[in-house]
Amino acid sequence: MPCFSSQAAGGPKGPARGPDCSSCPGPAGSPEEPDFKREGPAGPADKVFFMRNNIAIDGPAGAGKSTIAKKVAKAVSAIYVDTGAMYRAMALHMIRNGIDPEDAAAISRQCQSADITIEYIDGEQAVILNGENVNAFLRREEVGNMASRSSVNPDVRTKLMELQRQLAARTDVVMDGRDIGTVVLPDARVKIYLTASAEVRAKRRFDELAAKGQPADYDTIFNEIRDRDYRDMHREIAPLKQAEDAVLVDTSDMTIDEVADRILEIYREKTGKA
Ligand code: DC
Fold first, then answer.
1. Residues 177, 171: contact at Cβ < 8 Å?
2. Smallest Cα–Cα separation from 53: which of 26, 31, 70, 72?
3. Are 101 and 149 in the same domain?
4. pTM for this structure?
5. Same domain for 258 and 273?
6. Is residue 2 part of a domain?
7. Is residue 18 part of a domain?
8. Which of 30, 61, 97, 112 is surrounded by the most beta carbons within 10 Å?
């Protein structure tokens, strides 16, 4: 059960492996890790300079990133990393500690006491917040809304970005989020910008909640999606935008299988892998 910790990341020059991380995979290139080549000169210490077959998928809330990323990860034998879940775990930490989403200083202070760790249990990502598996709480609307607010904080972003880079340096990943192709993994081999109209995304979320028997109001969901898009796209640090070298995939009129096939086609074109 590999685990990766935000505390273990240790900053740009810190250890790649935490002292208490006995279940983490060994250093890249060790027997349990696939071999990989260094291409070109080593980059700056805080950059991922190993050429892995990483896939970065960015896009707005509800575009289908996680469903697609999981499918693609399985097809290319990579690990799926849901960075939104990390921001949601941090948001949960803020909610539990009664932090005002507008109080930047309080968010910066509070984020220091969040030890966020990623474990893979039966192939599924589990987010561990201060020793507790918090996956069951992360999809709540209030957590998503707080995540959209607390994720503008530079201290939150730095802490989680280190964890994300640590993961991508160790193994091939399909990583989804808002700033993966632009900031976290600017050298990713494959970059996808996955989107869909706000109406389609709201309808998908409405149907998802209805299928679970949870009360839902389409207009409220639609307005929340629009607000979240605005915040994610207009924040000062690492705003959501399409990387120059990302391929745009609009999923509004596509099935899940069609989207996954399209991404795998792009992957084959970019990497030459079958
Ligand atoms: O993908 P999601 O809905 O689970 O993400 C929740 C929030 O986290 C989203 O509104 C913005 C933030 N986020 C981010 O800022 N950067 C990422 N790489 C992923 C998510």
1. no
2. 72
3. yes
4. 0.81
5. yes
6. no
7. no
8. 61
Domain identity same for 143 and 104 = yes
Q: Which of 171, 198, 231 is the last residue of a domain?
A: 171
- CA distances to 64, 127, 135, 201, 219 from 215, rounded to whole Å, are 21, 26, 21, 17, 13
230-272 pLDDT, tens digit each: 988 998 999 999 999 999 999 999 999 999 999 999 999 998 8
Give the domain range for residue 202: 36-78+173-274
Is residue 144 within 6 Å of ligand 1 at its C-beta? yes
pLDDT for res 2: 52
45 and 109 share one domain: no
Place of tokens 């990943």: 173
Task: Go through 36-48 and write b for each residue having 16 or more CB atoms within 10 A of its CB, e for each that does not.
Answer: beeeeeeeeeeeb
pLDDT digits (tens, 9 = 90+) for 74-114: 999 999 999 999 999 999 999 999 999 999 999 999 999 99
Question: Rounded CA gap, 271 and 274, in Å?
Answer: 9
Return the residue whose CA atom lies nearest to atom 10 of ligand 1. 148
Closest-CA residue to 108 (of 95, 96, 94, 98): 94
CATH number of the CATH domain containing 121: 3.40.50.300
Q: Whose CA is nearest to atom 14 of ligand 1?
A: 178
Is the distance from the beta carbon of residue 101 to the nearest atom of ligand 1 less than 6 Å? no
* Ligand 1 close to Cβ of residue 92 (< 6 A): no
Considering the domain architecture, whether residues 53 and 86 belong to the same structural domain is answered as no
